Structures are given as structure tokens and as C-alpha cells.
Amino acid sequence: MEAELRPQEERSHAPVVGLSLCDSAPLLWRLQDLKAVRSEGLVGALLGSLPRTPRQNVRLGRPLLLLPEEERLLAERRGAAALPARNQEVAGGELQEHFAEEQQRSFEEQSVLALEDRKSALVRAMASSSGSDEVLQRRLLDLEQNFSFPRSALAVQLSTARAGLSHCPEARAFLEADWPIRAQHCPRREARFQVFRDLRGRGFFLTSAGKFGGDFLVYPGDPLRFHAHFIAVCLALDESICLLDVLCVARLGSNVKKTVLLCSPAPDGPVRYTSLRWSGMV
Questions:
Q1: N or C: which end of the chain has fewer CB within 10 A?
Q2: What are the two backbone dihedrals, phi and then psi, of residue 212, each rounded to the nearest 5 degrees?
Q3: What is the pLDDT of residues 56-72, one digit of tens each?
């Protein structure tokens, strides 16, 4: 049966966000960028562990990994910009030099503090044993001449205020909406993007459905408040599909209480949706 859904008007002006490309993966680091894409109905997937609880994978933090379709939709709306590779290399070298300088400065400061702490401990120990001042001064001088602070004991400060350690500073003017993200030439990706754009235009939220055997999980609202109602499977209009595959995906959708949508974008027309429901064997 054909699913009849009413599209919503797409927003014409989207906020510009900065994408940090890690190989081919589009990542968002800045908090304002995460808020901007969320306001556009784009969900993505958080990848980073929280600094205070790094050994769990239930609650995650920045960066946010976007689906290829989400990245392309942002680029289509002129709402995303990527940092050119040459600027990334320059910025990376500057950050490494700055990090080395700060680490050396911190090491020198901690060496002085560690020596003062050892001296205070020696003074307290000699005072409790009623040692002479001459012996105390001689031992303090010997400690100062032979003291060595190991690099392995260096305390390193972790920044929890901003993820990425100034990976995208505000002063860097790289948010150019004309910057090309990446060209998409694969027919399979093109079909997925047409379906993604159509469903997002109708007000649905979409996430990846790899573990459910489909292309997208389709939510009627924010995934934090709703369960997915549909499993979208993208197919071309002239693409043939094995009957066993149809039965498998329909039964899977029934087991997880979701309706399977076969989504077929027409070359010059709307996307056609066919719903499947598993009713058991007769």
C-alpha cells in the first residue's frame, strides 16, 4: 500500500556550521554547531567519551559524526563549510609547537614545586627528630643539588570546557559556504539522499538503520522522545529484489514493532513509498 505523507516546507536559511573532515568522516566539534544541526532536525551520532567517565559507552559526547546524507543536505542548503587541507596542516603544526612549549613550561614549574615539597617534608622530618640546624642545611643543599623530577610524573591538564582543544577556534575564518564538501556520484548514494531529503522535508527524523537491516530509522519526532516507527529501505524503481529478502525484512520489522518502508525515488518525480507488514503464515 502506498504511504501518503504530507511534506513540510524546508527552511531556506540554515545556519553555517564548520565540518572537520577526518579522512572521509564529517565531524562536528563545536557546541554551537551541534545545536545548529539539531535545530535543523539532523541527529548524527556522538562518538567521544566523556572526560569524567571515559570507560563507559552509554553516554557519549563530542564529536558528532554526520551521515553522508546529512552532510550533503547541509551543503545543499549552503549551511556547511569545511576547512581546507593546507590550513589544517598549518594549524596542526602550530598546535603541536604550542603544546610542546606549554608542556615544557609546565614541567619546569612542576619541578620547582616538587623540590619545594621535598624540602618541606625534610624540614618536618628533621624537626621531629631534633636534628641540628647544620645537619638540616647540609641535607637541604644535597637535596637541591641531586634532585631530579622525572618526566613520567608530569601532571597533564585535560581540557573539559571545550572538546577538541581549540580544534576550531572562533577567530579562524574558514566558514565559507561556497566551499565544496564532496561530490556524490554513486547511484546508491543518490537514491539514499533523495529518500533522506524527502523524509526530512516531511518532518521526520532519521538515523542509521544498519543493525535493523535497512538504510534509515524514521522517527515521527526527536529520537530522544520517540521510538522509530519505520525502517526505510531505499530501492530504485526498476530494481529487482529477492522475495526471501522481502520476507526477512518484513518479519524483522514486525519483531521490532516497526513498519518497513520500501522507498523508491523516481527520476523526475516524488519518492514512492510502499509499506510492508508481516502477518504470519496462513
A1: C
A2: -110, 10
A3: 878 888 889 999 889 88
